[in-house]
Design brief:
Elements: E1 2-9, H1 13-24, E2 29-33, H2 59-72, E3 76-79, E4 82-88, E5 91-96, E6 100-108, E7 112-114, E8 130-131, H3 134-137, E9 145-149, H4 153-162, E10 168-172, H5 182-190, E11 194-197, E12 200-207, E13 211-218, E14 224-228, E15 232-234, E16 238-240, E17 270-272, H6 284-306
Parallel strand pairs: 1-2, 1-6, 2-3, 6-17, 8-15, 9-10, 9-15, 10-11
Antiparallel strand pairs: 4-5, 5-6, 7-16, 12-13, 13-14
């Protein structure tokens, strides 16, 4: 078992930001990440709205810089998958697959995962034409027709990215207007490879060994039609990764951690940051800011309760 001052679960922008602040305060700080540090930002090809990077920044490069900066001050990034936490006196024990960690303060920055359509064929063809990551899979469909489902920033931006490879992209949205920022809407409407399919939902994903067509239904007139495509990319929102907490902290109805302005949860010694908390916007800059607040609050908590 490793004894630390601050254990941070999640190695995305929020977790890496918290790690930097914790380590700079001369506290033993670990960042626990089950995969590669970076989180959801690694699923896009370019970040255009993070301050300080005119022209945008590659998410892998940004993650690398964040990690290195924290490590310069002593933060330790450990690859481990966490399956639960337990209260032990004034400490929190974090149970990982590789080790256990006993921390004076805990920061949860586990982010979220893609929401599923929950339609027939989705699970069957995941990895065979059903995708939740454009940068991962778009190159496999060069010169082919594909579909994107969603109407927010992610759906719009990823649909545009996919047009670099696909011959045509159908953007399917259940409403009659997009929710994306106006800059993304402008780019969508100006892209000749994009075709909007309004007021429509996907009823079924069909194929044999891989995706071959979608069954669509128009929500206004109920008409169903078949759309031949080689892939479907799904961007309809995210589900917060809070299942491992097992009623340890108060959650919102949508499953996010309910925190105050200091990023304090309902449990003493547990703080949270990033996409997993009840903030209205899921942006890299928001994650970094809340990560910094969570770390500073954790530092103050440790100084007050552990001397």
């Amino acid at each position: 078992m490793k004894e630390v001052d601050i254990a941070i679960i999640g190695g995305g922008p929020a977790g890496l930001s918290a790690g930097l602040y914790g380590a700079r305060s001369m506290l033993k700080t670990v960042v626990l990440e089950k995969q590669s540090p970076g989180g959801q930002i690694l699923l896009t090809d370019l970040i255009e709205n993070y301050p300080g990077f005119p022209g945008g920044v590659n998410p892998e490069e940004l993650t690398k810089r964040m990690r290195e900066q924290g490590e310069e001050f002593g933060a330790q990034v450990i690859l481990d998958d966490i399956d639960g936490i337990e209260e032990q006196g004034n400490f929190w024990k974090v149970n990982g697959w590789e080790d256990e960690y006993l921390a004076k303060a805990l920061i949860v920055a586990t982010g979220s995962e893609p929401r599923k359509l929950e339609v027939p064929g989705e699970a069957k063809f995941t990895g065979r034409g059903v995708s939740y990551c454009a940068t991962c899979d778009a190159p496999f469909f060069k010169g082919q027709e594909v579909a994107v489902v969603g109407g927010g920033d992610s759906a719009a931006s990823e649909a545009i990215y996919i047009t670099k490879y696909a011959s045509k992209v159908y953007l399917i949205h259940r409403r009659d207007k997009l929710r994306a920022e106006m800059i993304w809407q402008k780019r969508v409407f100006e892209n000749p490879k994009l075709e909007l399919v309004w007021d429509t939902v996907v009823r079924e994903i069909k194929g044999e060994k891989k995706v071959k067509e979608l069954i669509l239904r128009n929500l206004k007139d109920g008409e169903e039609k078949t759309l031949p495509v080689e892939a479907i990319f799904i961007f309809i929102g995210m589900i917060p990764n809070t299942g491992f907490l097992k009623d340890k902290v108060k959650l919102t109805p949508s499953g996010k951690i309910d925190v105050n302005l200091r990023m304090e949860s309902s449990a003493n010694g547990i703080f949270a940051a990033g996409d997993v908390i009840n903030v209205p916007y899921e942006q890299v800059s928001v994650a970094v800011g809340t990560g910094a607040i969570a770390a500073m609050s954790a530092i103050e908590y440790i100084n007050k309760n552990f001397g």
